[in-house]
Recover the amino acids of this structure.
């Protein structure tokens, strides 16, 4: 079986390289791309011609699906989620989808309940509550 | 999922670019060569964010071209099997529907749409539940799970499902109007 077929995000099998890499939530990508787009606009006479289709589509997507607009809120989300020693990938899926219930969170990120980790339902509940609070006070 | 990773690539540069602006030329060439491309291993390269290291150039025999190894960090988009993400519906037909999540296209076949949703043809083809409470049409936002990926030289194509718990429509533009 090739590495490609063994991939399974539900069990956090995303390959060593991606496991170690830093994941970005949609709102963080939006910040990076916005910054980049400003530079392109300043330095080029015809900005629309200078960006790839991949860039354009990604920018539209992350803008549409950004849960948090405020940069401080984004940092807080990261801070809260990192308390639970989640993998980067899990952290970002939760940050992107903002599940409301414990069952929903587990359905979105099944690996959160894997045996090696001692994350209880109560802990997930607290975590989701904290995230909801950030959203509320943003 | 979007990632921020470090990659390395060899860039070939023509001797006419050698001079005080050599690094600038290398950066420009790297951006042109890499941004917007897609590989099976790393997915779509969205944007280069940092240039970390320019290695020593190696002159190619016979041509005069010089190859520079360049390390850079970039934002990439790479879908994974069993990943849950949100997407925008772009096309609906009787076979199922297509949705887009950033640069990637995802097809959801009608077998992977809940059984109580029926296809409704017309100028705005859609899938609707029997009580008409939920509707999937162009521009709807759906949450789906990727169940398979197909990698091509220049594109990654995904198959998704919305037939599972906590998946399906999250926002229907038609419902608001």
């Amino acid at each position: 079986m090739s590495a490609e077929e063994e991939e399974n995000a539900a069990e956090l099998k995303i390959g060593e390289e991606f496991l170690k890499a830093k994941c970005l939530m949609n709102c963080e990508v939006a910040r990076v791309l916005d910054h980049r787009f400003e530079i392109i606009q300043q330095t080029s006479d015809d900005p629309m011609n200078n960006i790839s289709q991949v860039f354009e589509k990604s920018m539209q997507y992350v803008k549409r699906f950004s849960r948090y607009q405020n940069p401080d809120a984004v940092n807080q989300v990261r801070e809260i989620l990192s308390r639970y020693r989640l993998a980067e990938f899990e952290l970002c899926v939760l940050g992107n989808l903002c599940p409301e219930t414990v069952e929903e969170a587990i359905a979105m990120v099944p690996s959160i309940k894997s045996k090696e980790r001692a994350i209880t339902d109560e802990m997930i509940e607290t975590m989701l509550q904290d995230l909801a609070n950030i959203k509320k006070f943003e | 999922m979007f990632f921020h990773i470090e990659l390395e690539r060899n860039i070939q540069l023509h001797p006419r670019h050698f001079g005080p602006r050599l690094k600038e030329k290398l950066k420009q060439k790297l951006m042109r060569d890499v941004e917007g491309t897609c590989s099976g291993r790393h997915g779509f390269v969205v944007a280069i964010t940092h240039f970390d290291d320019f290695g020593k150039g190696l002159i190619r025999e016979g041509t005069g071209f010089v190859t520079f190894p360049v390390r850079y960090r970039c934002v990439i988009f790479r879908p994974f099997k069993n990943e849950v993400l949100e997407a925008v519906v772009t096309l609906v037909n009787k076979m199922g529907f297509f949705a887009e999540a950033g640069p990637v296209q995802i097809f959801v076949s009608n077998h992977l749409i809940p059984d109580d949703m029926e296809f409704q043809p017309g100028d705005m083809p859609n899938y609707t539940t029997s009580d008409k409470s939920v509707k999937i049409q162009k521009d709807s936002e759906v949450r789906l799970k990727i169940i398979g990926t197909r990698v091509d030289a220049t594109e990654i194509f995904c198959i998704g499902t919305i037939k599972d718990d906590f998946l399906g429509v999250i926002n229907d533009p038609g419902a608001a109007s």
